[in-house]
Model the fold of this input.
Amino acid sequence: MHWYRFGLTCVLAASAPAWAAPPPTGPDESMPVVKVDGLADPDDQSYRRMVKGMDAFEKYRHLAPNASLRYRLYPRIQGVKLSGIQVAIQSESGMQPVPLEKDLTFTLPRDAKALEDGARVVVNRKSRSFAWGPEVRTPGLPPNTRRLGDLRLECQIDRAATLLVGFKPPAYLVLDALVDVCTTYPGAWLYYGERAVFNVTLVDGARRQALFSKFMYGNMLLKPFHLFYDFYPVLTERTYNINISDQSWSDDTLVELEYMEDEPVRATL
Done:
């Protein structure tokens, strides 16, 4: 999500009945079975695309050599019921449950049969209840910070996985076919904080630079267009854009996130 990556979405109803796991049929049953109960249009993504994102993580691992990849769900509309959320890989072979952490992150297994079957990664909530995104994290960072190389790698993963449903003008499609949009200036990729963001500052050694207001809260787009993007309506205050293609900032640059109720974070490099 940036000047070209913001996700086009329709604002739909929030919650839906949860999936229910049927009782075991016998003591030898090794794989729990999940079924959708009363949910005709679950929130989902292409398993093949998400595996392409995993491939991109390996290809561009040099940007964040110590990091790990998880995918994350961000509730993007009001009223999404968070208790009882389940994620599964749905294919012709059935439903394969995927463990979901409390922070709504998960990792996907590689499954050749699921790829062959054109599987979907599904959540037991109505379509477009969530914004989906990669989350690359290098361990050991100070609180309330991200590492710029991690964010650059997230861009490459999302470019491959195209998780964010969004309007991409013809100029973007041409550009993406010719060059790497994650490294082509002045591309500004959009990210989410953990909660409402007050200020964002880049710190690279002695160099510090706070983001201008135009890089906050989706301000790079005219407000009437916010309706069409994943951050609208409930994620708007959590969004910020960074010109990750500006190579004058090293991959080890820290992105300090000052939240609405927090004191500024002072990073030590």
